[in-house]
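Risk register update: the risk of archive-format incompatibility is retired. Evidence:
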Amino acid sequence: MLTAFALAVLAAAQAEAGGFHISIIGGRRNAMLTNLAAPDDMTALFHNPAGLADLRGRRFHLFGSMNFLQNEFEVMALDPERFPEINPEGCGQGDTDPCPWPIADDGYYEQAISPESTFGVLPFLGFSTDLGFVSRRLEDVVLSVGAYAPNLYGGTLSTEAPTRYFMTKGYFAVVSATLGLGWRVNRRLSLGFNVSYNYMRMVYGVRYSSIDVLTDEGEDPDWIADLVQQTYGDLDMSYEGEDHGMGWSVGALITPTDWMSIGLSFMVTQGPTFRGDLDLRSTRNPEVDLEEEFAGLGYSLPYGLEVEMPIPPAIGVGLNFTPLDWFEFGIDLRLWLYTVYTYQALRPLYRDDQTGIRPMTEASLSREKDYDLSTEIALGLLFRPFRTQPGLELMAGIGYDQSPVPDESFSLDNPSMSQVVASAGVRWQLHRNVRMSAAYMLLVYLRRDVTSSETSPPTNVRGQGLNHIPSLEIEVAF
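Archived output:
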């Protein structure tokens, strides 16, 4: 039983955040949604580095956006025998106190659950210069450097709600430093390349019911499980891991006619292997050293974990049309090849001086993921409404993004839902050398009803939500 307990705790401890690409960086991208075939600001360094070739002179670029998330989930009631601390035994009956989490007739908890806190920010800082100062023959080559965070988001869920058995906290960060080069080969073709250094960090917390981890699926709890629950209560787990790696992308910008352009991009990012400490505590007796308790019984608990997280390659194809001087429209297709995310490896870490049986192995703790292809398609419009103000641009867009996560491996620490996206924004030339933009995006997370979860405990939930993303940008040429 002790072996089963340790295995269950560590198996559940792996963080399941998918590390999803976030590509909403840049004024044109956030206002119009389409920019692969018209990457006309320095965030081309990220989206399609071929666009850097047309950014002559020296330029400074600062962009920032924030996420304001509103979502909620209805959770299918968990087994009261396995999770006795959600609703005390006998609550809501006769003269007893009402249950903290009453269950509706459809089998879901009556109260919908929302995150206690969320955050998401996407900053970008960049500088570029053409190499004409080195040689006139290099005027068509532009060098750019940038620092940005393509993933910087997280949130917390209540430690009192039933969702505590899925997640209490989760944060994921990728901070990148990138060097890019764009080359205008001729008036019809430019090429680009970049290379990035990425620092990655993940924080994850969850709570476990002692009875649940000690009881095999389909079996009733025995007296040992009840005793452990009474002694230790639930168990809080906290994990922090970090890693670093490299990434690169290539891009092309083809202009077969003066009124049409084609953008192509391909991005590869080295997947991290997060390594960090594991902290496991009893909620009833938080000062108890669980590692020491198990050591006295002849078992070893690991002090840390290694968690592998594959990050899929990304392919982008875009078309941009300018039928009139005052009007443009674009179509972008982005594909994230999450089909590479079929399996997530988890390795327990032990100290050399630890003795006793080590029941936790990579084979026993790792999980199948079986993600699908993720597809985003977007349509964008750009207007220059005033002939006397050609530097004033109004933009709007609409798109659809398909979630790659199947119901079987859906999780609340990364509640991926398909979404409809709408955007609007304005960009204006304040001065010959200064341009600013402001944009607003609305992400509508489509309702998801998961009833076939294979996680433990089952993540059978119904949920939907909204995300409001305002952004500001300033570009300076000098």
